Amino acid sequence: MNTRRPENHGRPADPRTAIPTSVRIAGWISAAQGLIGLVTAIVLIVRAIAGHREETVMISGYATAVWFVILGGALMAAGVGLLRGRRWGRGLVLIAELLILVAVGSSVFGATGSALFGGVGVPLFAGAIVLAVSCAVALAALLRGDAVEWYAN
């Protein structure tokens, strides 16, 4: 009778060792974006508590902060999930990155006018470029062959 047990004792292999590099890159990008979203929510809440009001438009700092908490928290959780080898994070990151990329493209570069001529300013324009590039990199990383194969298995 063979009483020797396998080395893994019936446990599955560590999923972190089997995660493709492209999935890890997308996980780090989305986790960082989610963290930035949560920090933005905190800044919006502090500004609203301090009494900041927009003169030209009706914007609620609290409502905008809630939106950033929901999107930022979900994106951060999905990014951490990808870094831990959890496949459920992939769909969430794909959808969020597409939404962010479309939002950045339509608001900064879209029909409302170019950011350079719309009075947005160079720092915001540069930030939009960085955000758009990071979204594109995360999308490309998750749509690579090794990432799709990892997700399918």
Describe the protein.
With about 150 residues, this protein is mainly alpha-helical. The protein is about 65% helix and about 0% strand. It contains 5 helices and no strands. It has helices spanning about 20-50, 60-85, 90-110, 120-140, 145-150. The protein is elongated, with a radius of gyration of 20 Å. Keywords: Membrane, Transmembrane, Transmembrane helix. It comes from Dietzia aerolata. This is Integral membrane protein.
Mean pLDDT: 82
DSSP summary: helix tally: 5
User: N- to C-terminal separation?
Assistant: 34 Å
Can you count the beta strands? 0
Biggest β-sheet description: none
C-alpha-based Rg, rounded: 20 Å
- What's the shape? elongated
Beta content: under 5%
Order of SSEs: HHHHH
Q: In terms of quaternary structure, what is this?
A: single chain
Structure classification: mainly alpha
Uncertain regions: pLDDT < 50 for 5+ in a row? none
As a percent range, the share of helical residues equals 55-70%
Transmembrane segments: 25-50, 62-83, 95-118, 124-143
Protein name: Integral membrane protein
Keywords: Membrane, Transmembrane, Transmembrane helix
